[in-house]
């Protein structure tokens, strides 16, 4: 952390390309990544197909972890896998200076290459903080809302294009064409959190009570944002589909078995993810997205599906979610993860059931008004194969 400056404390970090460390912490704040000093590296692609979900408790050298302290380093191995094979490295923060004028938050980020600014129109009130991904909040209420606008970092293009003129590439020009947007967006979410931390007394908020929420492509954004920044207390992932909660393996298996196309490693958006990912065999990855969800543990996450939309691949998402539940169980916090796959509604139009499910988690993990957070609603009325035990060939330890 750096010294004080106009607008608050400054978070500092290197400007070069490479994986970010524990950057993003500010005076009195928690680290963005507590396991940054583990010097973790990505695993190699497997020599033979593994159609089971990889053991989230096995280090790349084969060691089976047995403690919560070891989980921080294992978590950073998963981070390294995601960065190498999917999104590219999340960057260090640069120098961050935030100012608040009325309800307008401005967060200026400077590296040796240039400067960019995030702005957010703050609304609502409450000690908890809700960071919405590109859209107005519909599920989390009673918090101070600080929107994250993704095109202030890089544009969200449906055609897999990336643009060198985007703000992120003014501060990290060497990364253009070498990372996926979810790396840049995760970095941007963290810089917005840096800014909130700096002006928290003016906002009258508690930065130990931060939630992120998004739906569809923004559901993926919320998942990556919450998984890659340990300052997020609650991650709300709504209808994220392939590249979000779904397992790359299970999505491929589902299409092979049923002939129904879902978002997979070979047909997603290659601006969101690195172009090189398209040619990967999902069964040879050293990781999968149950471990991405598990990176949130022991913090809280609530997952929402919508099984009526084939493209979302909720069979795959359910299996990955249930494998992630095992990670939370191992840490003794099984009730810190919930899921609600209620169907029969429009895309990103959650029914009352899901609104209530999210409220259960908000009341406990953001507002402290409840000690109950048991939400477990699996997909129903579908032809899905929900036998997730069949794709788990490892034993869940009790981490000490």
Give structural notes.
With 400 residues, the chain is of the alpha/beta class. Helix content is 26%, strand content 14%. It has helices at residues 68-87, 168-171, 181-198, 200-203, 217-228, 248-258, 289-294, 314-330, 352-365; strands at residues 4-5, 8-9, 95-101, 104-111, 114-121, 129-132, 144-145, 210-215, 234-238, 300-304, 337-340, 376-377. The strands form three sheets. The chain has a seven-stranded parallel β-sheet with strand order 7-6-8-9-10-11-12, sandwiched between helices. A three-stranded antiparallel β-sheet has the order 3-4-5. A hairpin with a 2-residue loop joins strand 3 (95-101) and strand 4 (104-111). Helix 3 (181-198) packs across helix 5 and helix 6 (248-258) runs antiparallel to helix 8. The longest helix has 20 residues, at 68-87. The two termini are 31 Å apart. Mean pLDDT is 92; it is low at 1-28.
Which secondary structure elements does this structure contain, and how are they paired or packed?
Blueprint: E1 4-5, E2 8-9, H1 68-87, E3 95-101, E4 104-111, E5 114-121, E6 129-132, E7 144-145, H2 168-171, H3 181-198, H4 200-203, E8 210-215, H5 217-228, E9 234-238, H6 248-258, H7 289-294, E10 300-304, H8 314-330, E11 337-340, H9 352-365, E12 376-377
Parallel strand pairs: 6-7, 6-8, 8-9, 9-10, 10-11, 11-12
Antiparallel strand pairs: 1-2, 3-4, 4-5
